[in-house]
Design goal:
CATH superfamily: TonB-dependent receptor, beta-barrel domain
CATH topology: Maltoporin, Chain A
Radius of gyration: 26 Å
Number of helices: 3
Distance between the termini: 27 Å
CATH architecture: Beta Barrel
Helix content: under 10%
Strand content: over 45%
Shape: globular
Length: 817
């Protein structure tokens, strides 16, 4: 499902999978941390982090799990907002695209959304892997639970989980007729309507039908065109079917989702900024590109040439899980997934407002009808996955195991053009079609050997064999009929600057093991140590605008070593889980910007460095009295890049090593000069190695909710929570510029503006109050998200800085039947 970074965050950030996740009524709650009525204490949290149902306190994995009630009380409406409450996780909307989240977990992340790049945080819906970052911002209402697994999960979840995995489990059709209807209205004239209905057919079969619609006006005023940007419109529908028998259960669901929203570059309304319009109340933009298409853009081919400013996606998603009991100690599951995703957009990533004095080599051209730097994109993605998984035990409980096979196939066609309009006229940098396919097979097995009631040894291994292909074709008329012509973006011209041929195929065969030892002295305490390996696929630098820039990059591999404790105390009224880890990553895939000889910017992803990160994560939950719930979480991390000082000055494709680039930068600075080698890649403007991005030293969150009875049937529940992130960098080369005069960021104490990647930390507060009639299923709530409208740097692209969404509120009414 996809979502956008518009103002309202609590209810939903997008329609993609919003309908898919609209399901059972509130009375069919999953087990979670909400106490049973009339009792105090914490409930049992059941998770499937080891591909079978287990108590979260019994598994040797760093995991955060959320029940529906927890999601509601913390104000979490989508996976983007999970980043506020997971230790050492930063989750931000990607630049431009409201549908794509850039996750960084323990420092491992990715900001690219082209299909030649894979995300390192795997996203799963009902155990089905969703490969594209373009649609990973999933709405989280009415789900069974959400599990966030921290650290590599290469044995049981497979490729592209070097940082971790986010698993969303939807509710199945209920056994009784019921459902809910909900309507809401909020800031920026947001309207939200959703509903769901369970329809039993017999004692063994039933349906679930769900629907969703949302619309708002957007929160960004475009002072050039008069339009309002960063709205979040969409709709969706889902139907699910469940068939159960004595030895079998089959769950299948289909969802059709539409999302229309974007995350356009915008600026806060501040009187100190001369460009702020007099009527501005929240945010403004200055792009001259319009949402209304004025006809084909000169030089751009295909239907994308007619796209107005904005972003739209349509997705079809099918999930199927057939489980068979083959005996008392053996079951098999057939898990099938199909996804079709179409994404179309025209987005301006540079409005031309800031000229060379702001660190950009381009003139300050504002209001060009072609935008500053626009990407026109028409992408179609199809993926099929099939998994066969066995769960069982033998030796009278001595060994519990899970084993299976997995198949993945994906094909993607991306038709996109780069148009540079900041010079005052449209200059077409590139227009091409990329076809890339990926096919992977895997076999895996993991066994828990229960030597005694207290000691368990876990060993697992996964073998993955993967092949990828890359085809590119130039759309420009100069190349028609002759893709081998010099300068054309085609496979004929995949030649590096040193003359080396760039391969159009990649393959890898790799083993990813896991080992763990746990000690459980009693039911309330578990100690464990573990070692786990994960890997992320290689790919191609598809952002390049010449054949020599379409460089390959290799796989990224991570070993993570953890030690932790899981504990419950105070008669099951408190739960404290703590994990310490050290992660060693080889070949970290790092996207960065470089300045070409003509002054334009090239976006290049390479395996620039190795990476080390170590830290501590702690989560505390308290339920000291009926209706009272308190939580707190803390993450601390320390990390650094590690470069090879003995590497050759240039690699096999003629690309300078980081050590060589740094030496060039330092030599220029020593001579009183500057150099394109400075402030590029992971070399900072002063010639040092950059700090890793999106890794604040501290991530702290906490909150409280209290359900107060009002008479026999009514309750009133206030909630408040806050999340803190300390300072961090969001731009790979740490380019931050201080200047006097108009700028994009908050001012410092001496009146200077800060432009670039540095974020000096922030606190976000969410709150709400809900009045509920228990017997009749009525609820009325008032909520606010980012209640104090904290502004902070969420993303950086070539010295342009993107903000988080502003504060919002919503009033909702819901009826469960």
């Amino acid at each position: 499902m996809v979502a956008t970074s518009t103002g309202f965050k609590l209810t939903l950030s997008g329609a993609a999978l919003a309908a898919a996740l609209a399901s059972a009524p509130a009375h069919a709650q999953a087990e979670g941390d909400t106490p049973v009525a009339g009792q105090s204490g914490l409930g049992t949290i059941v998770v499937t982090a080891q591909r079978r149902e287990e108590n979260v306190q019994d598994i040797p994995i760093a995991i955060s799990s959320f029940s529906p009630d927890e999601l509601a009380s913390r104000g979490i409406g989508n996976t983007l907002e999970l980043g506020e409450f997971i230790p050492n996780l930063i989750a931000q909307n990607n630049t431009g695209l409201g549908a794509a989240n850039a996750y960084f977990l323990r420092g491992i992340g990715n900001t690219e959304s082209i299909a030649t790049f894979d995300p390192p945080i795997g996203t799963y819906v009902d155990q089905v892997y969703m490969a594209r970052q373009n649609g990973n911002n999933l709405s989280l209402f009415d789900v069974e639970r959400v599990e966030v697994l921290r650290g590599p999960q290469g044995t049981l979840f497979g490729r592209n989980t070097t940082g971790g995995a986010i698993s969303i489990v939807l509710r199945e059709p209920g056994d009784e007729f019921g459902g809910f209807a909900e309507i809401g209205y909020g800031r920026f004239d947001r309207i939200m309507v959703r509903g769901s209905m369970d329809i039993p057919v017999s004692d063994t079969a039933g349906f679930k039908v769900s629907g969703y619609y949302q619309d708002d006006d957007g929160y960004v005023q475009n002072i050039t065109t008069g339009e309002t940007l960063n709205d979040n419109d969409g709709y969706g529908a889902r139907i699910a079917f469940r068939l159960a028998a004595d030895i079998a259960e089959w769950n299948i669901a289909y969802a059709r989702i539409n999302n229309d929203g974007e995350n356009m570059l915008n600026f806060p309304c501040r009187s100190i900024d001369p460009a702020t319009p007099a009527s501005c109340s929240t945010r403004f933009a200055t792009t001259g590109a319009s949402e209304t298409s004025a006809g084909p853009v000169p030089g751009i081919s295909g239907r994308k040439a007619n796209y107005g400013l904005g972003s739209r996606s349509d997705m079809d998603l099918v999930t199927s899980n057939l489980e068979l009991e083959l005996g008392d100690n053996l079951s098999v599951a057939f898990i099938t997934g199909y996804q079709s995703l179409v994404q179309q957009f025209n987005l301006d990533f540079f409005d031309g407002r800031f000229g060379p004095n702001a660190g950009n080599p381009f003139p300050a051209v504002i209001g060009s009808p072609f935008g500053g730097f626009n990407i026109f994109n028409d992408q179609e993605n199809t993926q099929i996955t099939q998994e066969v998984r066995f769960n069982g035990s033998f030796g009278d409980g001595l060994v519990d195991y899970v084993a299976g096979g997995y198949y993945f196939y994906e094909e993607t066609r991306t038709d996109f053009a780069d148009l540079f309009g900041a010079v005052g006229f449209p200059f077409l940098l590139a227009d091409r079609v990329i076809d890339n396919d990926a096919e992977a097979f895997a076999l895996y097995a993991q066994a828990d050997v229960n030597f005694t009631d207290e000691f368990t040894f876990t060993a697992g291994l996964r073998w993955t064999d993967e092949e990828k292909t890359f085809q590119i074709r130039d759309n420009r008329p100069v190349c028609n009929g002759d893709q081998a012509a010099p300068g054309c973006l085609s496979n004929f011209n995949l030649v590096a600057t040193n003359g080396a041929t760039i391969p159009d195929e990649q393959s890898v065969s790799i083993f990813t093991p896991r080992f763990a030892l746990s000690y459980e002295p009693n039911d309330d305490l578990l100690f464990f140590i573990s070692a786990t390996r994960g890997f992320k696929s290689g790919g191609w630098n598809a952002r390049g605008t010449s054949g020599s820039e379409l460089l390959p990059f290799g796989p990224e591999t991570t070993w993570s070593y953890e030690a932790g404790v899981r504990s419950e105390f105070w008669d099951n009224m408190a739960r404290l889980n703590v994990t310490a880890y050290y992660a060693d990553t080889s070949g970290l895939q790092t996207p960065s910007a470089f300045v070409r000889g003509n002054g334009t910017i090239a976006f290049i992803t390479r395996n620039f460095a190795d990476y080390e990160n170590y830290g501590i994560e702690a989560e505390l939950t308290l339920a000291p009295a009926d209706g009272l719930n308190i939580f707190a979480s803390l993450g601390w991390q320390d990390d650094q890049y590690s470069i090879d000082r003995n590497a050759p000055a240039v690699d096999q494709f003629g690309v300078s090593s980081v050590a060589s680039q740094q030496a060039t930068c330092l030599a220029a600075l020593a001579g009183g000069m500057t150099s394109p080698a400075c402030g590029a890649g992971i070399v900072t403007p002063d010639g040092s190695i950059a700090d890793p991005v999106r890794t604040p030293d501290w991530s702290i969150a906490g909150g409280i909710s209290y359900e107060m009875p009002l008479g026999d049937n009514w309750t009133l529940t206030p909630t408040v929570n806050a999340a803190f992130r300390s300072s961090y960098e969001s731009g790979t080369s740490n380019v931050t510029i201080y200047q006097s005069g108009p700028g994009m960021f908050n001012t410092t104490g001496n009146g200077q503006y800060v432009i670039g990647s540095y974020n000096d930390g922030y606190v976000v507060v969410n709150a709400g109050i809900t009045l509920a009639e228990v017997e009749e299923g009525l609820q009325v709530s008032l909520t606010c998200t980012n209640c104090f409208s904290e502004d902070y740097n969420s993303s950086t692209l070539a010295n342009t800085t993107y903000y988080n969404a502003p504060g919002t509120w919503m009033v909702r009414a819901r009826y469960d039947f």
